[in-house]
Amino acid sequence: MSEQSVTSFRDRARSWLAANAPRRSDAQEPDGEPQAAGVAAQREFQAKLYDAGFAGITWPKEYGGQGLTNAEQIAFGEEARGYALPTGVFFIGLGMPGPTILEMGSEAQKKRYLPKMLRGEEIWCQLFSEPAAGSDVASLTTSAVRDGDEWLLNGQKVWTSGAQWSDYGAIIARTDPTVPKHNGITMFIVDMHAPGVTVRPLKVATGSSPFNEVFFDNVRLPAGSVIGEVNNGWAAAVVMLRNERVTIGTMGSPRTSPLSYHSLSALAARLGTGADVEVARRLARLYARERSVRLFGQLLREEAMAGRDPGARGSVAKLAGAELAMSACEVAEAVLGQAVVAGGAGDPEIDAVIMAVIGSPGSSVAGGTNEIQRNIIGERVLGLAKDPGVDRGTPFNQLRVGTLNTK
After folding, report:
1. Annotation marks residue 244 as catalytic
2. Among the four residues 98, 197, 341, 343, which has the most C-beta atoms within 10 Å?
3. How many CA atoms lie less than 13 Å away from 211 in the CB half-sphere?
4. DSSP string spanning 44-62?
5. Which element (helix H / strand E) includes 332?
6. Long-range pairs for 200-206 at CB < 8 Å and ≥24 separation?
7. Quick one: CA dihedral 401, 243, 95, 255, positive or negative?
């Protein structure tokens, strides 16, 4: 693609965004719990984005993408930086199941699901964690048993983002309990509206319900719903977890986030706490840390768009983002002073900061705990010795873990 073509694409993106997208300063931050009307509006905007040629920019044309280069993707990202694109309900699907299907799905799956995903016609979720299999995902007990040409799915998933809005999900289930835990797992596509699927939103400390527990009772899955190979689902799960950590770790924190340097420094100026030397020092550290996390995320995005797999460094970005959030909470406490104890007393800006502080600890758990990320970084980035894996060679149905009861 010539430089002139990229410039033309950038100009077109700039004009379209100015005419169709809300700027960040004009938009409220999402609380992770869109109402039905909000979902409908996001579907409509995603369709407009797709029809204008700005969705799936680097995805192949035969699967609904634009078939363009990484240069166009980077150009669009740079132009969109100042806008709050109302596309949050598609964050999971386009960042995790979509790329996994693109890499490991069948030709029929790619042609059936990817175009509708890109155009916003279908919303997706990811179904991995279970009540007794969170950080150790491979200990999952949700099962899928062959029944003729179909599979019968039974079990429970938890902490599933956006399940209440989703049309489809990518789920991993145990299909062979007689082999070691990583070897008997298969990834499936599940219709979230199918009989036997029950979604129950979970209320978190902020009062919102961004997560769900999902139950599967004899849900029928067609043979064509397998992503990758039967009993080789861990390979597909690794691909999706890699996409998840890169997606979460590189999304950054917008300037309008209540815990961003931009928001907290403005609040400190309004409250008068910015004149305090220690508060000013903490704000400066937050700016430096926020900037470094953003630049590292940009590096990983550009590497991924250039076809270079960031690999385990996605865990570095994920960990850095979670630690940034907790560091921002400490800065917020210094900025607010006594207001953090007394509450905002009806001040919307202070209330938003307090609610963000309450919700921030979740960033150290969602997408894999900080401890798990450190293990991954140590083993796969730094080359340190792996933790002992005493259950790696034992058939799953002989293990005594979590709520497992296979006998």
Report:
1. yes
2. 98
3. 21
4. HHHHHHHHTT-SSTTS-GG
5. helix 313-336
6. 201/164, 202/158, 202/159, 204/359, 204/362, 205/358, 205/359, 206/31, 206/355, 206/358, 206/359
7. positive
Domain ranges of the chain: 1-86, 89-231+391-407, 252-368
**And the tokens for 249?**
């770790």
pLDDT digits (tens, 9 = 90+) for 44-98: 999 999 999 999 999 999 999 999 988 898 889 889 988 889 999 999 999 999 9
CB 72 within 8 A of CB 52: no
- pLDDT of 203 > 80? The answer is yes
| Residues in CB range of 364: below 8 A, 6 or more apart | 322, 323, 325, 326, 370
The mean pLDDT of the chain is 87
Q: Which residue of the set 244, 278, 290, 330 is catalytic?
A: 244
Angle at 181 between CA 168 and CA 223, to 5 degrees: 40
pLDDT value, residue 89 = 93
At residue 29 the predicted structure's pLDDT band, cuts being 50, 70 and 90, is very low
Q: Report the CATH superfamily, name and number, of domain 89-231+391-407.
A: Butyryl-CoA Dehydrogenase, subunit A, domain 2 (2.40.110.10)
Does the domain at residues 1-86 carry the CATH identifier 1.10.540.10?
A: yes
pTM (2 d.p.): 0.84
Candidates 314, 361, 403, 381; CA nearest to 136 is 403
Whether residue 163 contacts residue 125, with contact meaning beta carbons closer than 8 Å, is answered with: yes
